[in-house]
Design a protein that fits this description.
23% strand; four-stranded antiparallel beta sheet; 10 strands
């Protein structure tokens, strides 16, 4: 498993989600606000529908969600956010693609450049690494929770492109348009997902050894902490034995 989904799994193991609830709310509010610019009715706005689902999963108060939508539609005044991507390289030559929402592009670019430079990475020109990623729907299920043959047929019948089985989790890859149909098919079959989102999936991954793996995880955590970074997509892969060593070192 590589890149963003791998990072999401690692974060869950670290139990960092509750401690960062404020950070999660900030990101979801920005996503809801931007999505609502295209219309405040979720029935006709798939991006807003997905953002509202995320808000509900995070137990965001209804009033907070409503105000975020109203800021997006212009019913309430608010900060104007710009969406853009930044590209870079991380430890071991890994490719990084960052989804940014910012009210000050120049400040954000300078801050991200500095974070990369200080943490064994560097900024890349626009287009340098983006070609290595494809926009896809990604759903992950904990291995052993569902019969794999049943899941395979369920996912493919609903329009999934691929199903990848790992030791600890199963990944379902869909096209962006088929994502909601596959997600609904899993929900209807009472299959619980640990992750369900539209993301950028790397075409190829780079396997990292212990030192580069440590540096990569530290960089991912630092980028994840930045208020303007919505998501970090990366093409790293950390073998399970290396991951165990890194985890043991961090715990010690």
């Amino acid at each position: 498993m590589g890149g963003h989904s791998h990072w999401a799994t690692i974060k869950r193991h670290k139990g960092a989600q509750d401690a960062k609830r404020g950070k999660i709310f900030t990101r979801i509010i920005r996503e809801v606000t931007i999505a609502a610019r295209s219309g405040g009715d979720p029935d006709g706005n798939p991006r807003l529908r997905l953002a509202i689902a995320k808000a509900k999963e995070a137990n965001m108060p209804g009033d907070t969600l409503k105000k975020a939508i109203q800021r997006g539609t212009g019913e309430l005044p608010g900060v104007t956010y710009e969406e853009f991507a930044l590209e870079g390289y991380g430890p071991g030559g890994t490719a990084l693609l960052l989804d940014i929402t910012s009210d000050n592009r120049n400040r954000t670019v300078a801050e991200i450049r500095s974070l990369l430079t200080k943490n064994h990475g560097n900024m890349a020109e626009a287009g340098a690494v983006a070609w290595q990623f494809h926009k896809k729907g990604l759903l992950t299920i904990e291995a052993g929770k569902v019969d794999e043959d049943t899941l395979l047929s369920l996912a493919l019948d609903a329009g999934a492109e691929d199903v990848k089985t790992g030791d600890k989790s199963i990944e379902i890859i869909t096209g962006p348009q088929e994502f909601e149909a596959v997600k609904k098919a899993l929900a209807d079959a009472k299959v619980e997902t640990t992750l369900a989102e539209i993301t950028y999936v790397p075409q190829n991954t780079i396997s990292l050894e212990e030192k580069s793996a440590e540096q990569m995880l530290k960089l991912m955590e630092i980028l994840d902490e930045h208020d303007d970074v919505q998501k970090v997509h990366a093409n790293f892969d950390i073998p399970d034995d290396v991951m165990e060593k890194v985890a043991a070192t961090a715990a010690g």
